[in-house]
């Protein structure tokens, strides 16, 4: 680079032969005294060493020589000022290059170095060359770094030391030496060329912006050092970091050209801080919709408060994605669960509140609530310290009154709970490597369509994904792996849960979950669970199993299809009803369980794959489809594929409606349940009343509430053998369990019939 060639800038000051009126004994500024006619200066036309030159006698303590014309300075350029000098007679002085710094408007730029290193003359007649470099940047080899405010110079030299000596000076030369500072074979713009100083304290905002503006398609280099940025900086060219930057949490570095995690890690010299600042930029229009981790592993020393990383945003609703990398929890105490015990009061009149909460200031939002009558996965959504009230994610089923509650604040690698709402945020091909030290992701209390696609949540200590409110509305979890840290433990010892959902419209598709206590607890309605494989067994013979999938809404309007449900079961409850006894509504309704593979091994005979657990009395089935499923028990058989858990109450089977339960296959399952249920009844002796037993083959051991058909297989005859063609009428809900029907004939007959019995109306 040479601006004299590329830009036609005149660098060389006039020769002494052109007149000493071009040279000042002062600063060179307009009005300065010149050497024209001065008694101590003369032009020598034919010096043996220099040809034409200036002969000058030193008469003052600092004998100045300055060019009266301006030598222009361009940011990013460096100029070398050179002079050859020899002593002629008298005292021997010291010589140094010097220049007067000018700024925009013509005024003096103070506070900068305006002289180069001095060279003492020691021998008469010896030619000595002195030089110095002036430029905007503070770089190694630059004698006079003036910063971006410098616009021009009056160049020359000084004679210092004893007076009386006479020297001769060859014409002073100025040349562009910027090329000395450029990197070989790469095109870089160095921020220090624009005034940046890597001392950790000088605000380099303007220098970074100037370097970026001048890059014109080239890369911007941040060399070794720590560069403080006091304001938000947007860099529109690729930036290469050899040094690091430091800036306040509230200020942003927007790398719009190379927006990726490695660039931010290099910029801040720390993986965790780089990740936070990259996320901050992602939510502040860094001209990218996603943050690419570029396959890198990011080690986190503690929970990342994702909202605190973006202090100017309390909510966000534009699609953003983090992709392609791994987040790993470092081993330290920052992940330890905080536990608080406090007395509080619960009333069904305000079913999502705890009131008169003692020690409320120490109870964190997002903590799991435990206590008598508290359902699973109930969290603190909000708190009002002044009113001593906690808002919960869901009602409690049997906690009326005052009691001691326990609040457990699990620590999450990525904690979004500081946002009031977060929508359309996703992660793709990212592994959350909890290493048994912490939990994975805590969602914001509100928002829609959080998504995970092709992600791993590996070995969470307590929870994989936790919703503490409605931030799970419309959540999409696709093609993900949830890998438990509790695989070596027996089922009864496990406590970790892969995920929970409180709101509606969740989609869990094509995921795999290994040996958690529960795969998913889903509140709300309209959930879709399809194509997943979740398994939870152990090696204990006749062992117990826990629910893989828990549905906590009675009218759930949900679909569970095409899953591989291995050594666990689907549990349908109303544990989030503040008044769990049925009073009105649809009760347990609108659930479809179709085309799944259910498998178990070494389980107790009472184990079942589908369990309905009412937490109050009076509930009934009101629209349920169970079809196309494959039920198989290995290493022993089980009694039934479905059952009612009557720990709190049974179902009211006199009200069952719209139960479609057929097309399933059963292997090593004693009761091959169906509805409608086709029974072949053989009446060997004549009788007027035939009692047809359903043999526990109605769904959930329900009642015989209807008969669709009675078809004779072969003749129906009286004792003498004569055929009878009369039809019987039926009597429903017969027997102690009301699961039998009676066929009542006009007379005593015998024969074989196929009866289609229904558990519903």
Automatic annotation (TrEMBL):
SUPFAM superfamilies: Pectin lyase-like. It comes from the Bacteria. Pfam families: Pect-lyase_RHGA_epim. Signal peptide: none annotated. InterPro entries: Pectin_lyas_fold (IPR012334), Pectin_lyase_fold/virulence (IPR011050), RHGA/B-epi-like_pectate_lyase (IPR024535). Residues 189-245 form the Rhamnogalacturonase A/B/Epimerase-like pectate lyase domain. This is Endopolygalacturonase. It comes from Phaeobacter inhibens.
């Amino acid at each position: 680079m040479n601006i004299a060639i590329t830009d036609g800038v005149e660098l060389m000051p006039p020769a002494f032969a052109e007149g000493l009126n071009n040279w000042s004994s002062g600063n060179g500024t307009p009005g300065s005294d010149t050497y024209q006619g001065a008694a101590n200066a003369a032009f020598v036309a034919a010096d043996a060493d220099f040809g034409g030159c200036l002969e000058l006698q030193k008469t003052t303590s600092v004998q100045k020589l300055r060019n009266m014309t301006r030598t222009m300075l361009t940011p990013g350029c460096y100029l070398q000022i050179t002079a050859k000098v020899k002593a002629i007679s008298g005292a021997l002085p010291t010589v140094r290059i010097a220049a007067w710094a000018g700024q925009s408007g013509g005024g003096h730029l103070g506070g900068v170095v305006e002289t180069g290193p001095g060279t003492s003359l020691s021998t008469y007649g010896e030619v000595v060359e002195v030089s110095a470099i002036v430029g905007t940047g503070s770089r190694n080899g630059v004698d006079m770094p003036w910063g971006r405010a410098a616009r021009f110079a009056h160049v020359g030299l000084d004679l210092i030391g004893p007076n009386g000596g006479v020297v001769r000076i060859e014409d002073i030369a100025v040349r562009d030496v910027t090329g000395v500072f450029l990197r070989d074979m790469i095109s870089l713009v160095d921020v220090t060329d624009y005034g940046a100083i890597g001392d950790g304290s000088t605000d380099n905002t303007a220098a970074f912006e100037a370097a970026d503006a001048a890059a014109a398609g080239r890369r911007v280099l941040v060399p070794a050092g720590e560069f403080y940025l006091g304001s938000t900086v947007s860099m529109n060219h690729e930036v290469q970091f050899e040094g690091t930057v430091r800036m306040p949490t509230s200020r942003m570095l927007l790398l719009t050209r190379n927006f990726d995690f490695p660039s931010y890690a290099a910029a801040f010299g720390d993986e965790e801080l780089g990740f936070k600042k990259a996320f901050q930029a992602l939510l502040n229009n860094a001209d990218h919709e996603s943050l690419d981790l570029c396959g890198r592993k990011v080690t986190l020393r503690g929970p990342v408060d994702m909202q605190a990383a973006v202090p100017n945003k309390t909510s966000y609703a534009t699609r953003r994605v983090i992709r392609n990398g791994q987040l790993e929890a470092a081993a330290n105490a920052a992940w330890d669960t905080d536990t608080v015990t406090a007395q509080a009061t619960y009333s069904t009149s305000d079913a999502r509140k705890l009131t008169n909460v003692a020690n409320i200031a120490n109870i964190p939002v997002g903590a799991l609530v435990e206590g008598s009558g508290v359902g699973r996965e109930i969290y603190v959504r909000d708190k009002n310290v002044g009113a001593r009230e906690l808002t919960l994610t869901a009602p409690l089923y049997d906690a009326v009154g005052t009691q001691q509650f326990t609040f457990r604040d699990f620590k999450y690698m990525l904690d979004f709970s500081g946002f009031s709402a977060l929508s359309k945020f996703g992660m793709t091909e990212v592994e959350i490597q909890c290493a048994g030290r912490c939990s994975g992701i805590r969602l914001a209390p509100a928002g829609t369509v959080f998504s995970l696609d092709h992600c791993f949540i590996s070995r969470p200590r307590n929870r994989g994904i936790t919703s503490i409110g409605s931030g799970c509305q419309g959540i999409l979890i696709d093609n993900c792996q949830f890998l438990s840290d509790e695989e070596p433990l027996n089922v009864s010892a496990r406590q970790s849960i892969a995920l929970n959902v409180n709101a509606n419209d969740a989609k869990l598709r094509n995921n795999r979950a290994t040996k958690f206590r529960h795969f998913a607890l889903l509140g709300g309605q309209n959930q879709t669970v399809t194509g997943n494989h979740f398994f939870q067994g152990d090696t204990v013979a006749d062992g117990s199993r826990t629910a893989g999938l828990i549905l906590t809404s009675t009218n759930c309007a949900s679909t569970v299809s095409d899953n591989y449900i291995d050594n666990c079961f689907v549990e349908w409850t109303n544990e989030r009803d503040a008044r769990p006894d049925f009073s009105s509504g649809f009760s347990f309704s609108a659930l479809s369980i179709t085309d799944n593979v259910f498998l178990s091994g070494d389980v107790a005979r009472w184990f079942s794959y589908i369990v309905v657990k009412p937490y109050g009395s009076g509930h009934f089935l009101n629209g349920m489809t169970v079809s196309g499923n494959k039920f198989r028990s290995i290493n022993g058989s089980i009694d039934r594929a479905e059952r009612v858990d009557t720990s709190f109450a049974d179902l009211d089977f006199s009200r069952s409606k719209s139960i479609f339960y057929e097309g399933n296959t059963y292997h090593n399952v004693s009761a091959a349940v169906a509805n409608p249920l086709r029974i072949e009844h053989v009446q060997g002796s004549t009788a007027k009343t035939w009692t047809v037993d359903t043999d526990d083959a109605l769904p959930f051991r329900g009642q015989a509430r209807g008969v669709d058909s009675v078809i004779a297989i072969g003749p129906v005859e009286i004792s003498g053998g004569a055929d009878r063609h009369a039809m019987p009428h039926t009597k429903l809900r017969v027997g102690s369990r009301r699961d039998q029907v009676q066929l009542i004939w006009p007379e005593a007959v015998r024969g074989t019939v196929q009866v289609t019995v229904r558990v519903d109306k």
